[in-house]
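User: Here's a chain of 294 residues. Predict its fold as tokens.
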Amino acid sequence: MSPLLTVEDLLLLQQNGTPRLLDVRWKLGGPPGPEEFRAGHIPGAVFVDLDQELAAPAGPEVGRHPLPDPADFQRAARSWGLNDGDVVVLYDDSGLLAAARAWWLLRWAGFDGAIRLLDGGLRAWKEAGQPLATGDAPTPPEGNVSLGEGQVPTLGVDEVEQFVADGGLLLDARPAERYSGAVASVDPRPGHIPGAVSAPAVGNLTDEGRLAAPSVLADKFKGLGVDGGRDVGIYCGSGVTAAHDLLALAVAGVDVDRVALYPGSYSQWASLPDKPVVTGEAPTGPTSVTGEKA
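Assistant: Prediction complete.
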């Protein structure tokens, strides 16, 4: 079953139960999500702070959005009112580029309920003529969800080079110009991890901010080398939009329980002087190597 649902699907869910709605609005550089949430959100939704609740504190050695401590993440999820076995519906206003992080983290933490994402997010809800609530949401009753860690594959910073050397396909979900190093980087060194293939997450979306059709996504990733015969790993700037490539793979019918995410991503990699960085539009060249292999 696709992890996506439509506005009509959500309305039907709400008629037959009470799904836990989570608003995961976030953008690199802002504006701040809480203010946008207060200005208008889907009734019944609870705001999830990506920086504070879906990540541990940032640092050069760990990246901008390291994985949260499992106990902290469980505490946050319970504060959203999340219980074991709940149906969770995630949305944002950026084509699920942020909400996908929560989807992936809940899977990583072993959440045993259903996790769905509203295709088109808040835009689709408003275009369907549905009402918005404003102000702060009422604090939900404390949930009882039990969460852990490590239930889906990850790559550690010291595993990445060997993964590529062993023939793994490493996808870079950042915009192409950040992959190539053509624009000024928010990270210490522009470029990408050697051997990585550019797979911008924004390319998973239609002009209407919805996920492209499964067949379109399947063709995209097949063209990048996802053929079922190679291990696949994904990274981005800080581990947020990499989850969107994973979501797109799931929509395309790929078994994402076998796809690894590198949580530290480029924000960690480029901060470590012993990790090599290359520039250019192709995985192997033209290159300009910065740093030496350990």
